[in-house]
Amino acid sequence: MKDILLMQILAEYPRVGKALKLFWGHKEYNEFTDSIFSDDTGTRHGFSQDTMTDLIKLQALHDREFPELAKGEDGWSASILP
After folding, report:
1. Over the Cα atoms of the chain, what is R_g?
2. In whole angstroms, what separates CA 67 from the centre of its chain?
3. Are 60 and 77 in contact (CB under 8 A)?
4. More confident site: 31 or 79
5. What domain range is 17 assigned to?
6. How many CB atoms lie within 10 A of CB 75?
7. Are the C-beta atoms of 51 and 15 separated by less than 8 Å?
8. Contact indicator for 20, 6 with CB cutoff of 8 Å
Protein backbone atom coordinates (compact mmCIF):
# COMPACT_ATOMS: atom_id res chain seq x y z
CA MET A 1 0.00 0.00 0.00
CA LYS A 2 2.82 2.42 0.88
CA ASP A 3 4.49 2.05 -2.51
CA ILE A 4 1.24 2.64 -4.40
CA LEU A 5 0.45 5.76 -2.38
CA LEU A 6 3.98 7.09 -2.88
CA MET A 7 3.80 6.47 -6.64
CA GLN A 8 0.54 8.40 -6.84
CA ILE A 9 2.03 11.34 -4.95
CA LEU A 10 5.24 11.22 -7.01
CA ALA A 11 3.20 11.46 -10.21
CA GLU A 12 1.41 14.63 -9.11
CA TYR A 13 3.98 16.21 -6.76
CA PRO A 14 7.46 14.84 -7.54
CA ARG A 15 9.33 16.97 -4.97
CA VAL A 16 6.96 15.95 -2.19
CA GLY A 17 7.04 12.28 -3.18
CA LYS A 18 10.85 12.20 -3.26
CA ALA A 19 11.06 13.79 0.18
CA LEU A 20 8.53 11.34 1.64
CA LYS A 21 10.58 8.42 0.31
CA LEU A 22 13.82 9.92 1.61
CA PHE A 23 12.48 10.63 5.10
CA TRP A 24 10.45 7.41 5.53
CA GLY A 25 11.40 5.82 8.84
CA HIS A 26 13.12 8.94 10.19
CA LYS A 27 11.96 11.73 12.49
CA GLU A 28 12.30 14.13 9.56
CA TYR A 29 9.25 12.46 7.99
CA ASN A 30 6.94 14.05 10.56
CA GLU A 31 8.77 17.35 10.36
CA PHE A 32 8.34 17.36 6.57
CA THR A 33 4.66 16.44 6.66
CA ASP A 34 4.05 19.15 9.25
CA SER A 35 5.67 21.65 6.89
CA ILE A 36 3.57 20.66 3.86
CA PHE A 37 0.30 20.59 5.79
CA SER A 38 0.75 24.20 6.87
CA ASP A 39 1.31 27.35 4.84
CA ASP A 40 3.42 29.96 6.58
CA THR A 41 3.91 31.99 3.42
CA GLY A 42 0.37 32.25 2.09
CA THR A 43 1.53 31.22 -1.38
CA ARG A 44 0.56 27.54 -1.53
CA HIS A 45 -2.46 26.32 -3.46
CA GLY A 46 -2.95 23.14 -1.46
CA PHE A 47 -3.25 19.52 -2.47
CA SER A 48 -6.03 17.82 -4.37
CA GLN A 49 -8.48 15.88 -2.24
CA ASP A 50 -7.07 12.56 -3.52
CA THR A 51 -3.50 13.57 -2.71
CA MET A 52 -4.48 14.80 0.74
CA THR A 53 -6.18 11.46 1.41
CA ASP A 54 -3.03 9.63 0.25
CA LEU A 55 -0.85 11.82 2.49
CA ILE A 56 -3.04 11.11 5.51
CA LYS A 57 -2.97 7.37 4.79
CA LEU A 58 0.83 7.49 4.47
CA GLN A 59 1.08 9.31 7.80
CA ALA A 60 -1.05 6.60 9.39
CA LEU A 61 1.15 3.87 7.85
CA HIS A 62 4.28 5.63 9.04
CA ASP A 63 2.87 5.96 12.56
CA ARG A 64 1.94 2.28 12.59
CA GLU A 65 5.30 1.11 11.25
CA PHE A 66 7.35 3.48 13.43
CA PRO A 67 5.34 4.10 16.61
CA GLU A 68 8.44 5.45 18.34
CA LEU A 69 8.41 8.33 15.84
CA ALA A 70 4.67 9.03 16.03
CA LYS A 71 3.81 12.44 17.42
CA GLY A 72 1.18 11.15 19.78
CA GLU A 73 -1.78 8.86 20.01
CA ASP A 74 -4.85 10.80 19.03
CA GLY A 75 -6.72 7.81 17.65
CA TRP A 76 -7.22 9.11 14.11
CA SER A 77 -4.40 7.10 12.54
CA ALA A 78 -5.78 3.80 13.78
CA SER A 79 -9.20 4.57 12.32
CA ILE A 80 -7.92 5.34 8.80
CA LEU A 81 -6.29 2.01 8.01
CA PRO A 82 -7.86 -1.44 8.01
Report:
1. 12
2. 15
3. yes
4. 31
5. 2-38+45-80
6. 7
7. no
8. yes
Split into its structural domains, the chain has a count of 1
What's the pLDDT tens digit per position in 23-57?
999 999 999 998 888 766 666 678 889 999 999 99
Give Cα 3 to chain centroid, integer Å. Answer: 12
For 63, residues 6+ apart whose C-beta sits below 8 A from its C-beta are: 69, 70, 71, 77
Distances (CA, A) of 70 to 3, 12, 18, 64: 20, 26, 21, 8
| Extended strands (E) in the chain | none
- Altogether, the residues listed in the chain come to a count of 82
Residue type, 37: F
- pTM greater than 0.90: no
